[in-house]
Amino acid sequence: QQEKEDLQGKLKLREHLSRTAGKSEATPAPSKNVDLEMKQLQWKLKNSNNEITKQSTTIKSLKNEVHEKEERIRELQAKISRLERDLNMKRHLIEDLRSRLKANQENEKTSNETLESLERKVKALAGDCSNKKTSIDSLKQRLNVATKEKSQYEQMYHKAKDELEKKDLKLTNLESKMIETECAMTELETTASQQLHGLAKQSGQALETVQKKLLLTNDKVEEFMTFVKALTRELQHSVQELRTKIKQAKKMGEVRACKKGLSQESVQLAASILNVSTTDLEEILEVEDDEETAKTKMEFEKDKEWLQYIQQLLEAQFPFASYLTDAILEKLNEKKKLVEEYSSLMKHTV
């Protein structure tokens, strides 16, 4: 740029000299030299301008490179600072890890000792767990058996309840109490149906009422069982009374036949021979023979077996109403026969 400025100054000086020379009267030879010099200077000026442009482009490229390198240097410096900071942090971390390693090595000894003790405890606990597992398996098996039995009993209960409801209609011909229980059962069925219809609307209240009704039905079933037991006892007692009455009627007939066959004198003679009174003689004549006693024992055993059979039916699994009805009807038929026999004996004795 300085050379350019010098050349421009010289060019301006030459132009000024050429102008002054044109005005003065000079020779033409020096003007030619001036023109040549002017051309040389212009050529040099062009060369210098070209060189200046080249230099300016190179300067710009160098400036850009310098700027890029400065940015690169700044990035590298920032990276170096980060690396130094990371290095310091890693040093602190290594020192911390070394201290922790020492502490962990010290703790490892104690942990190994505790681990050994824990292993011994684990072995003992494993033995206990195996024993408990066997006991749990056995309890599970018992639970399964209990659940199966429960389901079976529930099925039996439902079947018995259904059979009881079906066979209640057949027991209406026995006594007035049977009729009352049947009415109660029908009322219970109607109330249960009403409860079931109301259960669709109010489930909670209906469930409580159904539970109450179920308790009531259980109480009524128990009452029915006691009624059946009392009925069978009364029936057996009435049959026994009829048997004793029939025996007494037979004895009275036999005694009367004996009295008719024997005269009063023969009776008194027999009483005097036996050294007893006539009433004692009548009692002797009324004594039962061995066959009659065996028959009474057999009847007593049959009555006892019949009562036991009724008890077994009441305690047995459902359904049992048909068997119970057959047993009671059998006893009622026996009573009917005994009543007919007793009435026929009373007619003959009269």
How would you characterize the overall build of this protein?
The chain is an all-alpha fold and about 350 residues long. Helix content is about 90%, strand content about 0%. Helix 4 runs parallel beside helix 8.
Topology:
Blueprint: H1 2-23, H2 28-167, H3 176-199, H4 203-261, H5 264-274, H6 278-286, H7 290-315, H8 321-349
Helix pairs in contact: 1-2, 3-4, 4-7, 4-8, 7-8
Protein name: Centlein
Biased composition (Basic and acidic residues): 1-18
Region (Disordered): 1-35
Summarize the structure.
Residues 1-18 have a biased composition (Basic and acidic residues). The protein has helices at 2-23, 28-167, 176-199, 203-261, 264-274, 278-286, 290-315, 321-349.
As a percent range, the share of strand residues is under 5%
Helix-residue proportion: over 70%
Low-confidence stretches: 25-29
Tally of extended strands? 0
Specify the structural class. Answer: mainly alpha
C-alpha-based Rg, rounded: 69 Å
Distance between the termini: 180 Å
* Sheet having the most strands: none
Q: Order of SSEs, N→C?
A: HHHHHHHH
Q: Quick check: average pLDDT?
A: 78
Number of helices: 8
What is the 3D form?
rod-shaped
Using brief descriptors, characterize the structure shown.
350 residues, mainly alpha, 8 helices, rod-shaped, Centlein, CNTLN
